[in-house]
Write a structure and sequence with these properties.
With 246 residues, the chain is of the alpha/beta class. It has a single domain, classed as TIM Barrel (Alpha-Beta Barrel), CATH 3.20.20. The protein is built from 10 helices and 8 strands. Strand 7, helix 9 and strand 8 form a beta-alpha-beta unit. The chain is globular and about 45 Å long. The termini are close together. The structure holds 1,3-dihydroxyacetonephosphate. 1,3-dihydroxyacetonephosphate binds next to strand 8.
């Protein structure tokens, strides 16, 4: 099933989360052929978890730490997320890579912790503008995937991947569906080549300036198995329209 996910990033208080979900749920009640996911800030997980219980909307986090517990001030473990009913977690978002200096090795450890603990990670990959301009898109994406999945190659069916070109995020300048399709196909070929038992269960999502005007075209593009929507997911009506259009 295709996956349409919101990434709220650092937006929405718990109170705003409550209002959002109250408005959003009736608007997507009849959507049965798409998986809908809300990746909310840590502080909204509790309230969102309560409100989404018994609905078909899944709950996701935007980050996780790889150690199971201990003296890691400010960090959140897989078990803590699981206990709140979280089923997905975004790992290696470009904002974590480029603002917070998250390295491929850290991302690899986070993926391992998620797989061990039964959370489905959404691994984010994508090239920066200068890399794209230097013709390095495929090389960058391949390197990010190979490093993130190092020693986890047998488990590729247990993760989803979001292709989010960094230059397209928050810029109003999305990739063309054709360019996205080429990278998505390339990602699927990598997964096949690193896991000979790969069953094709990884969904490759597109993210980067998805909005109501382009969501349908992306979702109807071959090899696009879902969307990861940032700013256009912050308004419940707008995100519900994207879900319904895609
Ligand atoms: O980073 C994104 C989703 O993870 C995309 O953000 P925008 O939809 O705001 O471009």
């Amino acid at each position: 099933m295709k996956l349409i996910s919101a990434n709220w990033k650092m937006n929405m208080t718990p109170t705003q989360t409550k209002d959002y979900i109250a408005k959003f749920l009736p608007l997507v009640r009849d959507v049965k052929d798409r998986e809908i996911l809300l990746c909310v800030p840590y502080t909204s997980l509790c309230v969102a978890s309560d409100l989404l219980k018994g609905t078909h909307i899944k709950l996701g986090a935007q980050n996780v730490y790889y150690e199971p517990k201990g003296a890691f001030t400010g960090e959140i473990s897989v078990a803590m997320l699981k206990d709140l009913g979280v089923s997905y977690v975004i790992v290696g978002h470009s904002e974590r890579r480029w603002i917070f200096g998250e390295r491929d090795e850290t991302i690899n450890r986070k993926l391992l912790a998620c797989l061990d603990g039964g959370l489905r990670p959404i691994l984010c990959v994508g090239e920066r503008l200068e890399e794209r301009e230097a013709g390095l898109t495929f090389k960058v994406v391949e390197t990010q995937i190979r490093l993130a999945l190092s020693s986890l190659e047998d488990y590729t069916d247990m993760i989803d991947i979001a292709y989010e070109p960094v230059w397209a995020i928050g810029s109003g300048n999305p990739a063309t569906p054709k360019d996205a399709q080429a990278v998505h196909k390339f990602i699927k070929d990598i997964l096949k080549s690193i896991n000979k038992n790969y069953q094709g269960k990884t969904r490759v999502l597109y993210g980067g300036s998805v909005n109501l005007n382009n969501a349908r075209e992306f979702i109807n593009t071959q090899d696009v198995d879902g969307l990861l929507v940032g700013s256009a997911s912050l308004d419940p009506e707008s995100f519900a329209q994207i879900v319904n259009a895609s």
